Amino acid sequence: MVFDVWWLSYLVLGAFVGFFAGLLGVGGGGIMVPVLTSLFIAQGFSADNVVHLALGTSMAAIVMTSLSSLRAHHRHGAVRWDVVRSITPGILLGTFAATFIASRVASEPLAIFFAGFMAYVALQMLANIKPKPSRDLPGLLGMSAVGAGIGGVSALVAIGGGSLSVPFMTWCNVKVHNAIGTSAAIGLPIALAGTVGYLVNGWDGTGMPEHSLGFIYLPALLLVSGVSMFTAPVGAKLAHQLPVATLKKVFAGVLILLCAKMLHAIFF
Asked: Domain of 89?
């Protein structure tokens, strides 16, 4: 019966994540990581592994949602594939390398870094910050460096990189709809490299729960991903009918509350 309750929690989380991903065009990591961390603690998983498991599981779940988002934006001709090609090598390297850093950092500082970055994302939403175009995209070396930075931060907080890549591309005079579509395409290599990295780094971990594969907890991955695939289109459809600007402010508030809940669960 206990397992039924946890599995139901994963299903509800998947529905919530998918809906907001479709409605607001945000990745699910900001919701998944704090909620999964709290659920894993409640299930009695080792405190040393809960944040790492939440990050790895969230990154793996983002693979399917990013693939779906990529296909949708490609159909609308919104993906700048030249940008994707130039930034992907750095993305793969930065994301994969950052999982090695994350695996060697204790849960407490990792949770603090996650909460701090999500607070930045929430404030960005509340203030509706949009950088003014002021320069062109850098060359291959510069794009690789930017990709490594975006991938590294994305791996540490289990996001698809949109909160970093969209402002960067907009700043470099890429049209907004192209920046969003290209960011969706960039999210796939981030998710794949992050998933492999968390799988490899948690492979020989001690105190891991049953049904985990590295730092990926399979029951949560399958249930969250399975439901979010169905609720994301619902959110996308409602995006044109609901006051999205207001909902973004509400979502920002929810992010802050979830991060506070995660920090409370970790430290208290």
From this structure: 2-267
Closest C-alpha among 41, 155, 164 to residue 102: 155
| Residue tagged 């208290």 (tokens) | 268
For the chain, state the CA radius of gyration. Answer: 17
The amino acid at residue 160 is G
Q: Assess contact for 151 and 90: CB atoms under 8 A.
A: yes
The per-residue b/e assignment along 38-75, b for 16 or more CB within 10 angstroms, e otherwise, is bbbbebebbeebbbbbbbbbbbbbbbbbbbbbbebbee
Give the pair of three-digit tokens for residue 149.
Answer: 């930075």
- For the stretch 91-115, pLDDT in tens is 999 999 999 999 999 989 988 998 8
pTM: 0.87
Cα–Cα–Cα angle for 228, 229, 231, nearest 5°? 60
Highest mean pLDDT among 5-14, 74-83, 91-100, 169-178: 91-100
Q: Into how many domains does the chain fold?
A: 1
* Owner of token pair 């794949």: 192
The pLDDT of residue 4: 65
Those residues with Cβ within 8 angstroms of residue 84's Cβ, 6 or more apart along the chain or in another chain: 182, 185, 186
Q: Tell me if 32 sits within 8 A of 58, measured CB to CB.
A: yes
